[in-house]
Specification:
With 301 residues, the chain is mainly α. It is 68% helix and 10% strand. The chain is elongated, with a radius of gyration of 25 Å.
Length: 301
């Protein structure tokens, strides 16, 4: 039953991503045409951001599909890391797009141009509605999936960017403040770097197999060491395989030369403890008794 529920959830998530892809393709095409006709750099920058959204959503959709594939002899973890890789790619594109926008904004600020503000206002208003709908579609899934969160952040920042472009269009229409177009582009770009960096840092740590920030390795070792028959947990590795799979691999020095049956019972205790206290759901333990090897918590191989 739980497998069926998860499969249905994945299908629903995929459909939501497809809808947002279509919406963003429509927005991008409209904004490129409108930006060229109006001469608005902020509208073109918003279109460029939307285009990066389309690419990121396609990457997210492909990753979501790949993550459902089963493990095999040559791919023992399956494609569970596809969504983490997608988040890394999407975060990188956010920052790259932002750098391009900053360069263009500075050039336009030094050489301002007159802009058709009416077209800017209407197209940015349409983009706000379409991106707002996309944000609502992905909001729920973004809280527990880093891949969907990366797509959600792309769309949320683009909606905010469209709001800024709308405000700029109004200022240009009623006050002829055409330099606002460049200023808004610069602000949009800086915000993209801000949200992109945080996502890039998170996905990079997972890809590098860093211990998750909410896990204190010494607390884990201390908790296991308090169990009967345990002398010392050492040579510890803790990492996230995906959003929902946290692994621990370690050597376990035992106080007694116990039987395999006794070790199995101890292992069940360790697994229950780690799941309850630290949300670690995949445990691999190498039992040892009077073995001469390094006993440090972290051992450099």
């Amino acid at each position: 039953m739980s497998h069926s529920h998860a499969h249905n959830h994945q299908d629903l998530k995929g459909r939501k991503l497809l809808i947002t892809i279509v919406l963003n393709i429509v927005i991008t095409v409209a904004q490129v045409i409108g930006g060229l006709l109006s001469g608005s750099l902020s509208l073109l920058s918003d279109a460029l951001h939307n285009f990066s959204d389309v690419l990121s959503l396609i990457v997210s959709y492909a990753a979501a599909k790949l993550s459902q594939r089963k493990a095999s002899i040559n791919r023992t973890f399956g494609y569970k890391r596809a969504e983490i890789l997608a988040a890394f790619v999407n975060a990188s594109t956010l920052i790259i797009v932002a750098i391009i926008l900053i360069k263009e904004a500075i050039e336009r600020f030094l050489n301002p141009e007159q802009i058709d503000s009416n077209l800017v206002i209407w197209l940015s208003f349409i983009a706000i509605i379409a991106n707002g709908l996309s944000v609502l579609l992905l909001k729920k899934d973004s809280t527990n999936n880093i891949n969907i969160r990366s797509a959600y952040l792309h769309l949320l920042t683009d909606m905010l960017a469209s709001v800024a472009v709308l405000i700029g269009g109004l200022l240009m229409k009623y006050y002829q403040l055409f330099w606002v177009d460049s200023l808004l582009t610069l602000l949009i770009a800086l915000y993209l770097i801000y949200v992109g960096y945080d996502l890039l840092k998170t996905s990079s740590k997972i890809l590098m197999l860093f211990t998750p920030e909410h896990i204190n390795t010494r607390d884990v070792v201390r908790a296991v060491n308090q169990l009967p028959k345990v002398k010392k947990l050492h040579h510890v590795h803790i990492w996230s395989l995906s959003d929902h799979e946290l692994h621990l691999e370690a050597h376990l020095d035992l106080q007694e030369d116990i039987s395999t049956t006794e070790f199995n019972e101890l292992l069940l205790e360790i697994e229950a403890l780690l799941q309850k206290e630290f949300d670690i759901n995949h445990v691999t333990i190498q039992p040892e008794y009077n073995k001469e090897d390094p006993k440090e918590v972290i051992v450099q191989d």
